[in-house]
Amino acid sequence: MTFQAELTVIPREQHPISRRDISPNALRVLYRLRDGGYSAHLVGGAVRDLLVGQIPKDFDVATDATPEQVKQLFRNCRLIGRRFRLAHVVFGREIIEVATFRANSDDGSGDREMDNGRLVRDNVYGSIEEDAVRRDFTANALYYAIEDFSVRDYVGGYADVLARRLKLIGDPEQRYREDPVRMLRAVRLAAKLQFEIEAATAEPIARLAPLLAEAAPARLFEEMLKLFLSGHAVASFEGLERYGLLPVLLPETAAALAANRSGALRRMLVEGLRGTDVRVAGDEPVSPAFLFALLMWPAYCRSLMGLQAQGVALEDAQRRAADRVTLHLLDTVALPRRFSLPMQEIWLLQSRFSTRQRKRVMRLLAHPRFRAGYDFLALRLFASDEHADDVAFWKQAQSQSGDELSASLGVAPPAEASTDDDAPSKRSRRRRRRSSRSASRE
Ligand code: ATP
Ligand code: MG
Question: What is the tally of structural domains in the chain?
Answer without folding.
Answer: 2
